[in-house]
Amino acid sequence: MTVAAARCLILTPTISSSAAALRLPRIARRRPLSCSASPLAVFATMDSPPEGYRTNVGICLADPSLTKIFSASRIDIPTAWQMPQGGIDPGEEPRAAAVRELREETGVRSAEIVAEAPNWLTYDFPADVKDKLNARWGTNWKGQAQKWFLFRLTGGDDEINLMGDGSEKPEFSEWAWMTPQQVIEKAVDFKKPVYEETLKHFAPYLQSDPTASS
């Protein structure tokens, strides 16, 4: 597949503070369901991935100063911007899956894990998305159960390559460093609640941008 050279946009960020994330044991205990304002977006936080959902990792890649977040537009849906994510292989640990997916989707190898979200974030697919993805995968998933990781890029922007590491079909055509709010705003509606919750978890590790205007 031929992909045009990826363009990089730089957007101005703001966020702050400090705390600690913990890894909870995989106990099958469901937390209260939380819903967004969108009628299509349904999500929940859980201590372990529920039955009927595809297990998945999400990657919040921050720049070296931990002030900005990577987001990219999909090749198939250019208006849909998202953080990298991908399925967990059978027998694979979420942390290892996150490292692999980051490399496969962005080409990045120079990065360190800063934090792990303490619980699984679970969202349902809208009906049309569910039909399309399950037809592609040969499955019947209701949605995805995601474990999110915050990475810090330890290399330079020139390491980011939307062709990935060459092991998988490219997914993105353009990328940008964004503020957390911009990442949420550019996401498709059914992912917005998950992004809001994820960035709430990671906010204590991110830094305010000293160049941003007040």
TrEMBL record:
Coiled-coil region(s): none
Protein name listed in UniProt: Nudix hydrolase domain-containing protein
Essential cofactor(s): Mn(2+)
Tagged with keyword Hydrolase: yes
Organism: Triticum urartu
Gene Ontology cellular component list: chloroplast
CDD domains: NUDIX_Ap4A_hydrolase_plant_like
Organism placement in taxonomy: Eukaryota, Viridiplantae, Streptophyta, Embryophyta, Tracheophyta
NCBIfam families with a match to the protein in the record: PRK00714.1-3, PRK00714.1-5
Family according to the record: Belongs to the Nudix hydrolase family.
A Pfam short name: NUDIX
Hydrolase in keyword set: yes
Annotated keywords: Hydrolase, Magnesium, Manganese, Metal-binding
A Gene Ontology molecular function term of the record: metal ion binding
Residue ranges occupied by any Nudix hydrolase domain in the UniProt entry: 52-200
Any single GO BP term: nucleoside phosphate metabolic process
